[in-house]
């Protein structure tokens, strides 16, 4: 039996030096440090472990054992090392990409000061690359990186940087497995390497929604203990041509416009989103188009069931199993019934996870799941500024943001969007008839008296990157990637397990 701070150690061999009780997470030994000093007949052996703090934060703590002889100390050390080595889920070698440019430009400092010392203490070796330009990490992963040498990839940056990493990894996995990554109907191969996120961006919603906090030390500890959390990925195509993948928010209208405007203000750091958000709220543009979607059927959960995706989520386990069985039976998602909605929208958002972040702690779709093979399609129809503000405010309160007449939400496996100006002649004809022949254009101008005309189209905000096309086809790939995370834990802050 190997000692851990959780068990009272046998008196004759080893016992905590510190008097009183010790707090520990599940009381699992995280690291082991070597014997640091030897006095006459006493060997001191500090062992590091994880301690839970407030609001899902983890901290590294230490307990020191003393042994009467060097030999018994070495036996304890060897025993613990053996136990840790036998744990296959803990990474030993990691490929680390640092974006020195994201968020407040602190990525390098955060990694060097807060994360690297923990990796070193845990005996995790690293190969660190500080990126020199946008898409450096993506291209390195696609073509150069010797992935067999590593047990995982770590991304130091924000959602955009994480997006680069998964683009590189997913592409590489498909090419290595002879799967065509560009084909919209292809069943993609899941990536075997896990990705760790050290938050150093502006929103960091993927980290927040999978860990419960944006804290570099907590994320580093989740990587060290070898946590694993599967995640859905949406593939986005335009006319059968691959555009991008998305794991969090795919937003047209409001969030697309906020992103486009905020890119010009990058020098402001994370505050750019608030300023652009206010500006776009006041601008109040709506966009016309057609949304078609394939509802998710036969699965557990709905977008308004009040459930929350948490560590060990049964909905994700159940739906993941169901969808993989479906794939084995060669059933395609095409056999369901597509539905179509035509209209004027302030925002069209697809949230593949809750998209919780410090700005919106419960997220855009609080009941969305990380790994259930679906995305929540949220349609905010044209409404007054006052009503839109009511909807936005509910992202920050306990009230249901979908309980409004101009908002609807559907849990879907696939969807398509066609902006009005791209619609086929027959669709346009239908529109004209619906709008009393020809009055549609003057209608738009009446709705925007300040400028006299409305923009015909917005852009898609795809995990914080702007998409080049507006007409898109989106498909969810269930559990395509894995993170060094465990989902948000139910256990609340401050709770410590006491060692007697
Ligand atoms: C009145 C307060 C309303 C507050 C409403 C806050 C809603 C915030 C919802 C945030 C959802 C983030 C989803 C994640 C998206 C990421 O993939 C992406 C890349 O990191 N981040 C953004 O696009 C960054 C998107 C950032 C959007 C910020 C929007 C701020 C809106 C402010 C509206 C002010 C109206 C004030 C009227 C008096
Ligand atoms: N060395 C670099 N120089 C310039 N841009 C880079 C570099 N490395 C990565 N990038 C790009 O920087 C962009 C922003 O990075 P990141 O997502 O880390 O920060 P952010 O946008 O501030 O945060 P968030 O996405 O969480 O809102 C990404 O699009 C990424 O491709
Ligand atoms: Ca999902």
TrEMBL record:
Example GO molecular function: ceramide kinase activity
Ranges that cross the membrane: none
Family matches, as Gene3D superfamilies: 2.60.200.40, Probable inorganic polyphosphate/atp-NAD kinase, domain 1 (3.40.50.10330)
Superkingdom of the source species: Eukaryota
Domain DAGKc: start-end pairs: 89-240
A biological process term (GO) from this entry: ceramide metabolic process
Any one annotated GO CC term: membrane
Name of the featured protein: Ceramide kinase
Annotated source species: Salarias fasciatus (Jewelled blenny)
Taxonomic classification: Eukaryota, Metazoa, Chordata, Craniata, Vertebrata
Gene name of the encoded protein: LOC115392318
